[in-house]
Design brief:
six-stranded antiparallel sheet, alpha+beta, single chain, 6 strands
Length: 108
């Protein structure tokens, strides 16, 4: 399951339900995304939810994260979620999508 497409981070958070706790959600200036929300999962730490125009935005985000040191991302048709491991796993089970490990890109 590819997780489908979403019109906004709020739509994705609603669809994920309790698997993606998101307290104190605030829209932040999108960097490479159509819309971006940051919030707290209430247990481990920050959650980043991004919605892009299409899948090329997801690809661009993974490239940027490689330069920034790498991360785990849950990605779908036009979205990505950057969250602590337990939240990522629960959200993957609910939404589908692909869990990818973005490795640090060499500085050379």
């Amino acid at each position: 399951m590819d997780g489908g497409a979403f019109a906004s981070p709020a739509d994705l958070i609603t669809k994920a339900g309790t698997t993606l706790p998101c307290s104190g959600a605030k829209a932040i200036t999108p960097f490479g995304a159509n819309a971006q929300t940051a919030c707290d999962d209430g247990e481990v730490g920050e959650v980043g939810v991004r919605v892009y125009v299409d899948h090329s935005g997801v690809d661009d985000q993974t490239s940027l994260l490689g330069f920034a040191g790498g991360a785990w991302l849950l990605t779908g048709e036009n979205w990505s979620v950057n969250a602590p491991e337990t939240t990522r796993q629960a959200t993957t089970a609910k939404l589908g999508g692909q869990l990818i490990h973005v490795k640090r890109t060499s500085n050379c």
